[in-house]
Amino acid sequence: MHDMTLRNAVSNIRHKLSKTMEQNDAMEEEPRAESKNKHNHHEDPDIVRNIPNLKTVSWMKQFTWTVWKNKIVLTRRPIALTFLIISGILSALLSWSVGQDADDSIYPEFSECGTWDPSFVESFESIEDWEERDKVQLSLNDQWRSALPVAFMSLGPCLNAIIFFVFVHNEMHSQLFGVLRSLGLRDSVYWASWYVPFTIIACINSLLAAITCQFLTGNVYESVYFGGVFTSMFLLQVALIPSVFFVAALCGTRRKALANFIIFLILCSAWIPFLVQNSQSMPPSPYDYQWKNEMPKGLFWHYTSTLSIRQDYSWQDTFNWTSHYEDPFATYPPSQYTACNTPLLSEFQGTYPKPENGEERDNVQPEEIFVGCYSAASWSVKIWHADDVVARIAMFFFPYFHFHNIWGHFAGYTSLPDNKFTSAEASLSAGELAIKALPTSTINPLLAFDSKLAPQGSTFVLDRYDVYNWDWENPTSVCPSKNLGNYGFCQDYFNDCMYVKDPGPMQSTPSTNDIFGFLILLSAGYLLLAAYFAQVVPGLNGRGEPFYFPFLPSYWFGKRGEQQDGAHDESQFGVGVQVDNVKKNYGNFEALKGVSFHMAAGEVTALLGHNGAGKTTLSNILCCNIGASSGKIRVFEQDIGKDQFAIRQMVGLCKQDDYLWPTLSAREHLELFAGLRGVTKDKMEAVVSKWLCSVDLEEVQLQYASAYSGGMKRRLSLALATIGDRPLIILDEPTTGMDPVSRRFVWRHIDEIKDGKVILLTTHAMEEADLLADEVAIIRDGELAAFGSPLQLKSEHGTALQFSLLVDQDKVEDAAAYIETFFSSAKDSIEVDSSKPGSITLKILSMTDDEKADGVHAHTLSDFVAWLDGDESPVKEYGFSNSSLEEVFLAVTGTHSQTTETNQEDDDTVPDLEEGEASDTEMQSPMATFEPKISFANQTITIFVDMWKRSWIGRGAIVNYVIYSLFVVGCLLFGFGVANSYDPTALFGVVVMLTSLILTSITGPVYSDKTEGLLYLMQSQGLLSRAYVAGISLYGFSVYLVYGLIILGGLYGTSMFREPIECPFAEDQWGYYREICEVDNWEKPWGAVPNQYLSYLNFDDQIEGQYVTLRVSRSPGGFGMIAAIIICFALTGVGAVLSTAFLPGYRIPLVFTMLFILVASFWPTIDARVPSEYDYRLCQNMTDPEQLCRSTLSANNTAA
């Protein structure tokens, strides 16, 4: 007899047929409920009516649990949390450092217009010391006019926004957002759960920043009320929070390179209003009292008037002007100051040329002329009143633009002495603030004479229409006659008088309170956009909705139609999950080809198939992670294609990979999932403790998930999928990587929770499927190849159960006859062979657990085994054999013969020991002579090649190519765009920044290797640390070199590095010979810059009786200079890589690296300048010709 008697084997079969599971010797056998054949499920009315009645977890309960989770995630990042709280203090201090006026600043007396008193203008001009002149301020807060202090004030909220983005994007990218959605979490709950704690942090941050400002010296900080500072900082962050939600939703689960680029864009976005404002503004200067200009005045308005103070020189003949120009330090001739008005006109008059000597100039009405006190508009006021609607809309969506507007109101109102910005001023527009801030409540109307274009003190957006008076015979002007009325117009202001756009007090601009409302509106708008795009383009975080889903009534009012459709399925199959002709296509590839089967409640259905057969695809469709191309799936009478939310509330999912929060413990994970599935607090402790015990995690329940082994993470993932009493449990290879003991814990856990639930188990372990499954579905190349109970599949596709009986030869016929009589009720299901002497072979062709079905029943088989063991049996010995589920799988999938051949080939490779050969113990083990070949050079080259492949080869490199191609194009546009600029060095930081940002593409993979443990894994496999450093250094040098050649070599090919050319001399329309660059037959060389002159200097010398003009221009260096820069760039790049790549962390050092690149790129350009005109005059005197200029006199240098 065998060690395991046939009775025990048949007993195991009976347990299988009656749905009980054999546990380990230490585990107690538990009876299992009988399962029915799939064609007879409708016979049990209790099963038919066992439809789960799920209680929907309320919005507030989901919100409470997700906020609890987010609180834990935030508090376990203490460095990031600390910075989030104190960044407002740091930004306030930075703003104060650049925004305070010098201690020795001079503030003159202000007139009732808010301008310098006219008498002071003359005294200002008499100051010969230029350093003393620089101390004189046009108004208070002049350091704020450039908006640099505001940009620094917004830097803290900007960095906070980046950290907010990192927290949310980490969940989006790691698919934890999809895990929460699979729990039935509402999207609105998810966004609100992050919005609320971030808003609380923003409130604390803004409160500390506002308190800090109260202790800072400076007119703005001392004059603006506490609530204004706090509200501006707080609402800026309130608007930024949903904006980063929006970009995180757009980024989704895409590559980290895109997320790094978005972080860079967020960092740059804080400076966009500052840069645009300064490119479109011209801050006022003392010379505005002599010459007016129409440009916006920066962050806030500028108090001025139409009164001009002119310095008229005495033009006596005795003054030697030639010697004056030869000596740059010579004093001007005697002068006197006169006052006159420069009128402002209506837009019509300011753009309508009138004959200079005609009556139209004399007939301009007072309603179209302004003379007196006004405020020149700030840049933001111009944006609100500009004709460019697109620019205004684009700026509106920048929260920083509104932040600049608010602080423009603060700085503008307090720019005159004794003004305090309080809550009362917050309701006033910029124009109203400008009037209210004036020293007197009313402006002397006599200053306006009888002009009636606009009230005194109005804020004007100015412009100028250029009138080209080349027609000397019929000159025109837009200005009124100088003799009109008694205005005292200036003599030289009658060619291009400025005009007023939208004349009036400018009360239509938004007030501070209005801007607060805009920020709140932006917050709501971006929050809606984030929620929208998270559902339309969820990436790997679930199935997306159609782009028009907000317009579907079913989205708002539910999808409860077609409930009668389930009646047919219920009567045929009972309640459970019905998969009906489901197909899934990925382009031309068919992952599923019309799969249909049914899973009943209380049963485990094992889904088997080779890799790529479609198992995970079907699992993802069932849990609403992806949608089917066609077909229908009903889960407990709910159509999966019509109500994702209802389905997700029924599903518990354990994916192939472990999606866990690294800073949450096992208990916290289980509490979160149980709470989101409706487990009440009074039952929480018992349920969580039971689940921890069931998966053997009690002893490590308080450890962070990041510290768990692979098997522990799988057990936790299984527990998370099954907690909360969900009726459909999907387990995708739950025991992968587990040891045998852990697998048995999992098997017992599945057996304990299966009652009343549909469990879908995908696995490659046939023992597991054979032990747990009530039904088995085998998928082959996307098609359902077989479906049935393990016993049925073994009967249909496996070999028969065969008994071999040893009997005395004279009793063979009697024993065979008895056996045929014993199985007479199933004689078609057996075969008896007694042809061999002394032995009988009995084959059981089919077995069943149904009394009415054909086949040998388990009870009959059990009685037969009892007869074999009895004393009356003539059988002396017996044995049996049966097919395994693995054999069935190989037979169904068509891989049995292939596997057999492979095994035979493998067997042939192992030679048998012949007589006389040494045994294994006598042979020397190969491991004993193994010498690891760890080569520094080989490892360095391997790291170098691997880095290139990861970042620049394959589909994953597309993002890098797109980003850095944009940088190259931007650099080329810069080279062409600034070629005619007087001083492009101030903008050269753009090129430095675009070139230096390649550092992030080099360090990004290194940060990723460290955080994901790949670096540790490589080191554990023998990677030499110095080889890794050398490989990274070599890779960094090569990337810097290639990128430098592309971007700087391309820059060298632009107009910026071309020799300026002279335009040809030609006769103009008036008969004069001069340089004309628009001559039709002149072919300008491609990219050349005509007449790129920085200065024009006249010599007293003559050549052939003609005066000489020296033209000074830049002369570009050769390509050798660029090549040297590229080589130095690549060499220093290695140091940049090594100094940043091994900083601890990932996102935070990456953000600070980007910030450092921005600062280092633009800071040197602050002091950079081209030599002044005084320096070029030294060329005229030829005192330093080699260092400052290069002069060449030729025929083209002579004037006509």
Number of strands: 30
Physical arrangement of strands within the biggest beta sheet:
1-7-8-10-4-6
Distance between the termini: 126 Å
The overall pLDDT, averaged over residues, is: 79
Strand content bin: 5-15%
Pairing-aware structural class of the strands and helices?
alpha/beta
The proportion of residues forming helix, as a percent range, comes to 40-55%
Radius of gyration: 43 Å
Low-confidence stretches: 1-50, 560-574, 896-925, 1168-1200
Outline the biggest β-sheet: 6 strands, mixed
SSE layout:
Blueprint: H1 6-17, H2 45-48, H3 59-75, H4 78-99, H5 118-125, H6 130-135, H7 148-153, H8 155-173, H9 176-182, H10 187-214, H11 219-223, H12 226-251, H13 256-269, H14 272-280, E1 302-305, E2 307-313, H15 321-326, E3 335-341, E4 344-346, H16 347-351, E5 354-355, E6 369-370, E7 373-376, H17 379-385, H18 389-396, H19 399-413, H20 430-436, E8 459-464, E9 476-477, E10 498-501, H21 512-536, H22 553-557, H23 565-573, E11 576-586, E12 589-600, E13 603-609, H24 615-622, E14 630-635, E15 638-639, H25 644-648, E16 651-654, H26 666-676, H27 681-694, H28 710-722, E17 728-732, H29 740-753, E18 758-762, H30 766-772, E19 775-780, E20 783-788, H31 790-797, E21 801-807, H32 812-822, E22 830-833, E23 839-844, E24 847-848, E25 856-857, H33 858-869, E26 875-881, H34 885-893, H35 896-908, H36 936-952, H37 958-977, H38 989-996, H39 998-1011, H40 1014-1020, H41 1025-1052, E27 1065-1067, E28 1073-1075, E29 1095-1103, E30 1106-1112, H42 1119-1140, H43 1147-1167, H44 1173-1181, H45 1185-1188
Parallel strand pairs: 4-10, 7-8, 13-18, 13-19, 16-17, 17-18, 24-25
Antiparallel strand pairs: 1-7, 2-3, 4-6, 5-9, 8-10, 11-12, 11-14, 14-15, 19-20, 21-23, 21-26, 22-23, 27-28, 29-30
Helix pairs in contact: 1-33, 3-10, 3-26, 4-8, 4-10, 8-12, 8-13, 10-12, 12-13, 12-19, 12-21, 13-43, 19-21, 26-27, 26-28, 28-29, 31-34, 36-41, 37-38, 37-41, 38-43, 39-41, 39-43, 41-42
